[in-house]
Amino acid sequence: MNFDEITKRQDALIRDYCISCNKPLPRGAAFCEHCGPPIRPVEIPESGMTFWQAMKKISLLTLLFAVLVAYKANWDYQAFFDGVMETPVEEKAQDIPKDDDYQLIHYVNVSFANIREQPSKQSKIIGGAGKGEHLVILEKREHWTQIDMGGKKGWIATRLLSTSIE
Questions:
Q1: Strand 134-140 versus strand 144-149 pairing type
Q2: Between residues 14 and 147, the one the model is more confident about
Q3: CA distance 117 to 70
Q4: What is the pLDDT of residue 41?
Q5: Sequence-distant (≥ 6) Cβ neighbours of residue 126 within 8 angstroms
Q6: In a domain, 97, yes or no
Q7: Which pLDDT score, from 0 to 100, does residue 54 have?
Q8: Does a structural domain hold residue 80?
Q9: Suppose 160 and one of 61, 107, 113, 139 were both cysteines; which one would form an S-S bond, judging by CB atoms 3.0 to 4.6 Å apart?
Q10: Is residue 124 part of a domain?
């Protein structure tokens, strides 16, 4: 629609002329006798989606985005799923060497380790051991190891010990 047509329509409204056929409207008429009443525009039904359809699409787009990011970042899938699916394996006690030329050495692998009266964090501390200090093992439990401190027995957290064969 160009400028002249717009002006013509505006003038028709002001002078009581029909917008469609440009004939004069009868005084007080709401529509032209020649054209008839205006036709209501056809309502377009809402073309939206349900909440669950939207959630499904959002989920799929999020998954696609995650896969794309993982691919671009060279994500190591195998290492991730090995860690997730891994079942806990019980620690197997290290075999004690039977050869007289070798011996099993246990030593502290942290700067300082508390030695306790009982195998518990709440137990009384009866001594300590510094990094690299060799210890004599008497008994091993799941998370605690009993040691001999020159005739006195105590417990130390197993994770604070390392073992080597010399």
A1: antiparallel
A2: 147
A3: 50
A4: 73
A5: 115, 116, 117, 152, 154
A6: no
A7: 92
A8: no
A9: 113
A10: yes
pLDDT score at 56: 95
3 state SS for the chain: CCHHHHHHHHHHHHHCECCCCCCECCCCCCCCCCCCCCCCCCCCCCCCCCHHHHHHHHHHHHHHHHHHHHHHCCCCHHHHHHHHHCCCCCCCCCCCCCCCCCCEEEEECCCEEEEECCCCCCCCEEEEEECCCEEEEEEECCCEEEEEECCEEEEEEHHHEEEEEC
Total domains in the fold of the chain: 2
CA–CA distance from 140 to each of 2, 8, 116, 144 (Å)?
95, 101, 14, 6
**Is the per-residue pLDDT at 23 higher than 90?**
no
Instruction: Print the domain residue range for 25.
Output: 1-39
Confirm if 126 and 117 have CB atoms less than 8 A apart: yes
Asked if 22 and 12 touch (Cβ cutoff 8 Å), the reply is yes
- 2 lies in a domain? yes
The two tokens of residue 13 are 């409204």
Closest-CA residue to 126 (of 135, 118, 115): 115
On whether the CB atoms of residues 166 and 107 are closer than 8 A, the answer is no
